[in-house]
Design a protein that fits this description.
The protein contains 26 helices and ten strands. With about 525 residues, it is of the alpha/beta class. It has four domains: about 130 residues, Rossmann fold; about 170 residues, 2-Layer Sandwich (Alpha-Beta Plaits); about 110 residues; about 100 residues, Arc Repressor Mutant, subunit A, CATH 1.10.10. It comes from Paenibacillus kribbensis.
Amino acid sequence: MYRLLIVDDEYHIREGLKLMVAESGLSVEVSDVASDGETALRLYTERRPDMILLDINLPDMSGLDIAKTIREKDQQTPLLFLTGYESVTYIRQAVSLQAVDYLLKPVTSGDFEAALRRAEDRIAQWRRSEEEAIHRHRSSEPLYREHLLLDLLQQRRPAAEVIRELDRLGLFETGGPPYTVLCCELEEPEQQEAAATSELHGCKEPSSHLFAELAWEAAAAAGAKAHGAAVSRDRRVVLLAAASCRAAERTAQQIRQAVQERLNRAVSIGISRPVGRPEQLPEAYEEAVQAAEHRGWVGYSQIIPYESIQAAEPSSGYLLEKELLMITEIRAGNDAAVHAILQEWSGQLAGLPVKQVKMIVTQLVLFVMRIVQSDASVCQLPMQEQDPLLELSRLRHGPEMIDYVSRYFVRVGRHVREAREKGIPRKFRRAKEWIREHLQEDGGLNSLAAYMNMSPKYLSARFKQVTGESFAEYQTRVRFERARELLLDTNRKVAEVAEIVGFSDTNYFSIAFKKHTGLTPTEFRRTFL
């Protein structure tokens, strides 16, 4: 049975599609549904569906942007697009993302079933190719073993099936538990310079076989067994068997030294926690990758145990909540709220040790960089800071880190707002300004239509088409963004804030605010001030 993830922000459309799937008689079941892009990406990561149906217009991001994110990691999963717009630009982007089909709303059951059949055919074709590749690898056991190891660690095939095959090849017989995974990231020349390791020239590209040999020698010197595989051009993974935590760290040190001396390359190595069973190795692999990916803020050419990045998490709950709120306001391009939170946040950080300040601010920068990188409209505008993590790594004192990051967050928030406004026609930018300036009024869509000299029906349709949000959705979002901003000013009473954003009844405002944010206005202030 193939598992289908449906991503559409309209409940009735999702339910209709689920019914079509159930009545199709195909070997397809709806495993999950999502109404926004963030949920869709989380479900894709956690559940790895066999095929995905994406609505192009979603509340938080485009279905095409979701597809681009998925394609960065996965070239095989069939993607189908669903939209109310027959756009040549959309179709071209869908084709470039290797889409199986591009369906127009309202979709008929016949067209939908045909698209699902094509997705089934795509999966069957890919699996045949995989089987042929495995057959070719069997002629060379080292390559085949490497392929199987990646199948297990990256969960590309059922774990029990892969473990049986690796057992047949004797991989788990040599050494036994505990097992530890090392993720080795070979650094580019500029990263080696940033890490101040040494002056390196003539960097070599290590083959998978050569790196596996280095890993085996290093493990043997530490009293462990090693099996290596190449994940990508600059990433190697090493599975250690019969390795204590101390032996794993010694092996990582030996690998780093050998790569430096014999390949003239710097390498950062993430170390997972030890596990007792082969079935736990995918989780260990994820831990090793997460540890290695922290090298951008702990420094390049480092050995990074997973436990160390766990200990690096901010221990203060109120700081974490304030940071999450700031990220939300940066994503919304809400300058005033970002300023207000930064003022309070900077004062709290100033009382922490320098090491903890660096951990917190670097983690926040990583989150904010992802906001910029995941928003196509934002990426199109250049920013002054090409590598804020590198800039941050050069700072040594807490106050200068806080000052740099505060200025960076303000610029990013402004950059996000300007980027999102750039692609909107001038008349609709005026419409958005009008909405922000008239939150206290009850006129709503009819008053805006009169101001814009349009019919309410036409304005409603065009507003959604141009901005990606309906008039009501945008007005509601702006109301509560403005409310959060005003509530951060302790000199204002809740009743005053309610009136400014268009609520004559303070009690109703509190109910609506909690429904929208999960907190009452009083709880919000208590949490973030």
